[in-house]
Amino acid sequence: MNSSLSIFRKVAVAEGISYLLLLFVAMPLRHFLHLDLAVKYAGWAHGVLFIAYAALLVMTWQEQKWKFGKAVLIFLASLLPFMPFVVDRKLKDERALS
């Protein structure tokens, strides 16, 4: 059975990918080729994944009994490009140690 941590890590990676696609693919397509639909669909997908990230973060925080500061840092990481991948790696390493 998948724990919320396992599901959270998968969603974190998907959210990170969607953020990078939005920033480095959809936005340039919009500005240089005037393809507004790229931002519409990439933004929609990223929004759904961001909400899932936040909801799963709360669930995982409760299940794993993390300190408040750790949960806040993990949330803030979702706001920066590439950081969800760093979070995933750190959580993977933590799990391997325990």
Key descriptive features of the protein:
0% strand; mainly alpha; 98 residues; 4 helices
Could you describe the 3D structure shown?
The protein has 98 residues and is mostly helical. It has one domain (4-93). The chain contains 4 helices and no strands. The protein has helices at 4-33, 36-64, 68-77, 83-97. Helix 1 packs antiparallel against helix 2 (36-64), helix 1 packs antiparallel against helix 4 (83-97) and helix 2 packs antiparallel against helix 3.
β-strand amount = under 5%
Radius of gyration: 15 Å
Could you name the ranges where pLDDT drops below 50 across 5 or more consecutive residues? Answer: none
Largest sheet: none
**Whole-number count of domains:** 1
Chain-averaged pLDDT: 94
Report the total helices. 4
